[in-house]
Amino acid sequence: MNQRTTQRPKIGGVHHFSPTVTDIEASVDWYQRVFGLERVPVPFPHHGSEESGYAILLTDPNSSLAIGLHHHDANTGEPCDESRTGLDHLALSVSDRSELAAWADWLDVLGIHHSSITDMDEPFAYSVLVFRDPDNIQLELFAMNQ
């Protein structure tokens, strides 16, 4: 007889982020330039839409970051808009505010528009740097402050 679990099972962390993009090769290039990711050499079928979609997986060999960029034949090409149902943004953690400053410098080198670093005290102390990918998906780099 199987016993039903009485406690919530553990989560080991986020495995990957998978946005649908309008131009998969342009997005592959952008995410590789910004995050230094490596392309897995084979495309992955899109679960449930194997005949009309696929993903290109990018990974960071120095962390657990993985991004699966998805192409769908039915995508009409409208940009992401966080005011609609779906993804609002992705926030990636960095070690501290000085790391955010280094990211701001890196984005400047790449010519990628970004916000200034915003420091917040409520509801807890943090700093954030915001920018967008080619499909207007908001990305945040987020540092907890002591």
Automatic annotation (TrEMBL):
GO terms of molecular function: lyase activity
Domain VOC: from-to ranges: 13-144
Listed SUPFAM superfamilies: Glyoxalase/Bleomycin resistance protein/Dihydroxybiphenyl dioxygenase
Leader peptide range in chain numbering: none
Keyword annotations of the record: Lyase, Plasmid
Annotated InterPro entries: Glyas_Bleomycin-R_OHBP_Dase, Glyas_Fos-R_dOase_dom, VOC_core
Protein name, UniProt field: Lactoylglutathione lyase-like lyase
Source organism, top-level taxon: Bacteria
